[in-house]
Structures are given as structure tokens and as C-alpha cells.
Amino acid sequence: MTVLLNLLFLMIAATGASVVLIREPRRQVFAIALNGLVLTLLFTALQAPDVALSELAVGTAAVPLLFMIVLSAVRTAEPGQDTQSGEDA
Amino acid sequence: MSLLPYAVAAWLFGVGLYGIATSRNYIHLIGCLSVCQSATYVLLLGIGYRFDAIAPIFYDHPPGTPAVDPVMQALVLTDIVVGATLTALLLVLALQVYKRTGTLDPERLRPMRGTRAPGPRPRSTDRPPTKRAAPPAARS
Questions:
Q1: Which of B18, B73, B76 is the closest to A20 by Cβ?
Q2: Per the structure, how many domains does chain B have?
């Protein structure tokens, strides 16, 4: 059990660093989802099943979905369409 | 518990702060902020954990069985919900910044000023913040 916990803690450290070090936001979304999945496994191993369930719903599904929605909105949004003041893009 | 959860929490917070400080994209920056928040999850659950203890659900265990601390788990649950809300709010703000300025790079944003560059102003809804922002600039 201790070995599993230590392994999961080290995986959390690695996936958290990968979220930061992947600079392209479209690829970072997958790192965020993986980080949420490893956090879910860690919470299950730490005897916190309710927290693991909510982290599975929020961190693995909802937050990457939000990031993907915003990325698609940024890609289709016309820069400066709110003000149309001709500022440089 | 051992020292490893605290070390991992400190590492996650540090690497998240590094990402926030060096990020050139607001969406990437919000992801780094969520890494900082996951440091608090690891810290709180590491504080409340006990070895050889059950989850704090006493449906099929007699009362008095050693269990991990349920208060820390409630705190982490609140933390996750607040973190998801904060991420959603910041993503919407980043989208509005992109629509107004056309960039997501924090380095390329100019500070807000009371006066704007000359140009067509088709909407009158943008006018009141400009008027409100002008007098402090004139006073100072």
C-alpha cells in the first residue's frame, strides 16, 4: 500500500510538471485530463472515495471540456469584434 | 504520514508558480493555476491520512474503527468545486481579453488607459467605463 501511494505521489508530481511544461494549449488539455485521472487514482488510494468521484467528474471531464470550448471559441472568434477599434491583432 | 505528500505539494505549487510566471498564453496560465490548486488537494489529504484506516463510511464497519479524517476530505471537496468555478471564470475572462485586444499573450497587452486610440466607436456601451476611468488620470 505504501509503495502504491508513493508511486501515485510521484506520478502526480510528474503529470503536474507536464501540464506546466507543455506550452501548446491544445496539447496541454490532454495533460490536464491525465493529471485529473491520476489525482482520482490517488484520492481512491488515500481512502477518499467521494473526493475521487468529484475529481473524476470535474477534473477529468468538465475542466478539459471547458478548455476545449474556449480554445475553439478563440480560434473562431474575430479579434477585436467587440470594439472594432482597429487595434493590432 | 511520511514527508513525501508535503514535498509533492510544495513541488506542485512551485512548478505551478513557475508556469504562471513564465507563461505566454492566458489559457496555458490557467492550466498552471489549476496545478497550483492540486497542490492544496495533495496537502490536505496528506494531513488527514492515517495508515491502516478505512474510508470514513461506517455502513459496514462498527463505530470506532480507525478511519481517515473526514474533515479534510470535506475541505478538499469544497476546494475542487471552487477550483472548477475559478477555472471557468478565468477562461471566460481570457476569451473576453482575446475578443477585445486580439491577443492572449500577457506581454503584448498594454495597460488600460483613460483615453483610447482614435478610431470608430460603433457601440455606445463601451463609453461609460472610459468616462469613469478618465477623471483619476486627469487628477494624478
A1: B18
A2: 1
Q: What is the pLDDT of residues A11-65, one digit of tens each?
A: 999 999 999 999 999 999 999 999 999 999 999 999 999 999 999 999 999 999 9
pLDDT tens column, B117-133: 555 555 555 555 554 44
Residues 11-70 of A with CB under 8 A from B: 12-13, 16-17, 19-21, 23, 25, 28, 31-32, 35, 39, 42-43, 46-51, 54-55, 58-59, 62-63, 66-67, 70
Q: What is the DSSP secondary structure assignment for residue B63, as one 8-state letter?
A: T
Interface test with A, best of B26, B28, B69 (most A CBs within 10 A): B28
Asked if B18 and A20 count as a contact pair (C-beta separation under 8 A), the reply is yes
The domain containing residue B57 runs over which residues?
Answer: 4-139
Is the pTM higher than 0.90? The answer reads no
Torsion B10-B15-A16-A6 (CA) sign:
negative
